[in-house]
Write a structure and sequence with these properties.
By secondary structure, this protein is α/β, with parallel strands linked by helices. It is built from 23 helices and 16 strands. The strands form four sheets. A six-stranded mixed sheet has the order 4-5-15-10-11-14, sandwiched between helices.
Length: about 500
């Protein structure tokens, strides 16, 4: 299995190189040259496996330069019962809204209570093994731009991992108080956290620029270091997300919710497009998915793109109660465009250059038709998000976070518009306790809000009876270690100073 760059198809690297490097030198993203095809016999064999067994199968088909023992070691260390609170790291909750069954794939049972744990608990193991294969002796410097959840999950995954250093940038006013406290209290001798004056797109653009600035890379090389990424632009982040869609399908069959071979829909609250792209990649392998429902908040650039074929980031940026989706430049969309354009690096490169220079691009009618055949785009605002949380809790005593509520709301829009009642998996991306203020206001709109974030957690627990995840409960008395703030254009200088490089 070899990997191309979306902007240079002539570049061919093995998985270990793609994971170590994170991003191609030309600024493109690494994508598989081909996708393994799973037939009926393969899926029937996967039905009999647990999550770890399914993960080993998927990884072995994409990481062909890893041994079976190396893959098994990564999987067994990542998906432990201790870390995820049970034998299945990604269980499905079966609930209802308006009498319609909802199959909610809970991806937030890991150590930071967000779906990013599903990938970021295994990425450090994949990366350290990749480094030994490709850059033995070098330390990896992990740069992360986060809209909230990725930062903490990456920090937790990489803390004190040998031969790695990690620096996380987040928008100073663009994450929830709980997310900020999670990051700023992070333990580990190899971690750094810094807020930037700007939004997530500013942080993401800054990280990409650092990656592709030769002078900075040369300085790292002189100090026996190299850059890598823990964002979903890294193939080692995206690959683990394919697993949970395949596993969820197997669970639906085993639980008698669908018959083997039935098609499903997938509904994903979407920001950087990695989570929904992983489900699309699973479909290329043979997973029978009928429609990909892309749910956005008021930052509805993806909704407009799916409906019009025009991607335009030149618009108002909203700070919402679902901050992990407050994104106007969805990096992983580049991978979808590469595939839909017939693996054309020239076409993809032109679109990405137009996005950089003009802030917009328009795809061809052919690509637009292919996209609209498979994808549905919808969005909802904060008021609709809170109303959905309220209804879901009142009708079936199910408590969800603000991002999951966006997905549920857009799913309802989709059914109302199309009449399609295909059984659907709704990706639930975070614990409601990570966004206690907004969830509390939703379930008790007339109540008096406590002032302190952790008092809000206690109040929400009192009102709903839903247990507070231990990783969040344990944060209450932790003191912040980090308080750095920098301008977006000062990010390169901050990185070099943090690494003690002149």
């Amino acid at each position: 299995m070899l990997y191309n760059s979306t902007q240079n198809a002539a570049e061919k690297v093995e998985a270990a190189q793609a994971i170590s490097q994170g991003i191609s030198k030309d600024g493109g993203l690494f994508v598989p040259q081909e996708f393994p095809k799973y037939d009926e016999a393969t899926f029937k064999a996967l039905l009999k496996e647990d999550y770890r067994g399914r993960a080993k199968k998927v990884f072995s088909d994409f990481l062909t330069d890893f041994t079976a023992d190396e893959i098994a070691d990564c999987v067994e260390k990542a998906y432990t019962e201790e870390k995820f609170g049970g034998s299945n790291p990604a269980p499905i909750a079966y609930t209802k809204l308006n009498g319609r069954p909802l199959n909610i794939l809970e991806l937030w049972h890991g150590p930071t209570c967000a779906f990013k744990d599903m990938a970021l608990q295994i990425l450090p193991h994949l990366l350290t093994k990749s480094l030994k294969k490709t850059y033995d002796g070098k330390d990896a410097v992990i740069l992360v731009a986060t809209s909230g959840d990725t930062g903490k999950a990456a920090l937790e995954g990489f803390k004190d991992v040998e031969h790695t250093k990690i620096i996380v940038f987040y928008p100073v006013n663009g994450v929830s108080p709980m997310q900020k406290h999670q990051m700023n209290t992070q333990e580990g001798a190899n971690v750094k956290v810094c807020a930037i004056k700007g939004n997530f797109d500013d942080a993401q653009t800054g990280v990409k620029k650092i990656f592709t600035t030769p002078e900075i890379s040369e300085k790292l090389a002189e100090n026996n270091m190299l850059f890598s990424s823990a964002n979903s632009i890294n193939w080692g982040r995206l690959l683990p997300q394919i697993v949970y869609y395949i596993s969820a399908y197997c669970d639906l069959v085993n639980d008698g919710k669908i018959a083997f071979g039935d098609k499903i829909n997938v509904v994903v609250p979407t920001g950087n497009f990695g989570n929904i792209l992983a489900s699309y990649y699973a479909s290329l392998m043979g997973l029978p998915i009928n429609k990909f429902i892309c749910a956005s908040n008021s930052n509805n650039v993806l909704t407009d793109f799916i409906n019009t074929g025009v991607y335009d980031k030149n618009r108002h940026f909203y700070t919402t109660m679902s901050p992990s989706m407050d994104i106007l430049v969805s990096s992983n969309l580049e991978r979808l465009l590469y595939k839909l354009s017939g693996d054309s690096d020239e076409t993809t490169r032109a679109w990405m250059n137009a996005l950089k220079t003009e802030g917009r691009y328009e795809v061809t009618d052919e690509v637009k038709a292919l996209m609209q055949e498979k994808f549905f785009g919808g969005f909802c605002d904060d008021g609709q998000t809170q109303a959905t949380i309220n209804r879901l809790f009142k009708e079936d005593n199910y408590l969800c976070d603000t991002h999951t509520a966006v997905a549920v709301n857009v799913y309802e829009q989709y059914v109302a518009k199309t009449g399609d009642t295909t059984p659907s998996i709704i990706a639930s991306t975070a614990s409601p306790y990570k966004f206690s203020r907004s969830v509390l206001e939703a379930v008790s709109p007339d109540g008096i809000l406590p002032v302190n974030e952790f008092d809000m957690v206690d109040k929400l627990n009192e009102l709903t009876g839903m247990p507070v995840p231990a990783p969040l409960a344990n944060l209450k008395d932790k003191k912040a270690r980090f308080s750095d703030v920098t301008e977006a254009n000062e990010m390169p200088a901050y990185v070099l100073k943090a690494l003690s490089i002149d």
